[in-house]
């Protein structure tokens, strides 16, 4: 940002980052978006004629405390983690289906008689 160093912005983002748990890449993306939003708000206040330090203070105050923000950001991180888990589970399921199909294709009874079915009860 021009004219000031964004100390309050970075401090608020560090507090928020300390409260969040989840996939590192998604967490970094969310914090980058938050940083840009804070810096844009500070820039707008500065364009309205406020001194740089006051503009930054107002932007951070308007953004909310890390305690207020953490639940929403954490929910987004949880959704991202679940999406990743779902994709991995789908990939494993597909691999198991393909592997199972390949296993049956190479079975020794393929093209010949099937093995006898076993029953749970002895014949009468």
SSE order and pairing:
Elements: H1 7-19, H2 24-47, H3 52-63, H4 66-105
Helix pairs in contact: 1-2, 1-4, 2-3
Report on this structure.
It is a single chain. The chain has 124 residues and is mainly alpha-helical. It has 4 helices and no strands. The termini are far apart. 10% of the residues are buried.
Instruction: List unreliable stretches of 5+ residues.
Output: none
Helical residue percent band: over 70%
The whole-number mean of residue pLDDT values reads 86
- The ordered string of helix (H) and strand (E) elements is HHHH
* Rg on CA atoms, Å: 29 Å
Number of helices: 4
What are the key terms here?
124 residues, mainly alpha, 72% helix, rod-shaped
Task: Please sum up the structure shown.
It contains 4 helices and no strands. It has helices spanning 7-19, 24-47, 52-63, 66-105.
């Amino acid at each position: 940002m021009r004219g000031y160093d964004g100390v309050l912005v970075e401090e608020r983002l560090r507090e928020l980052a300390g409260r969040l748990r989840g996939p590192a890449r998604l967490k970094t993306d969310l914090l980058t978006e938050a940083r840009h939003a804070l810096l844009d708000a500070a820039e707008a206040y500065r364009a309205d004629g406020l001194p740089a330090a006051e503009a930054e203070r107002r932007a951070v105050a308007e953004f909310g405390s890390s305690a207020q923000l953490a639940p929403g950001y954490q929910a987004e991180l949880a959704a991202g983690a679940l999406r990743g888990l779902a994709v991995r589970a789908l990939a494993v399921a597909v691999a198991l289906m393909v592997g199972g199909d390949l296993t049956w294709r190479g079975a020794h009874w393929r093209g010949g008689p099937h093995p006898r079915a076993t029953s749970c009860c002895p014949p009468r």
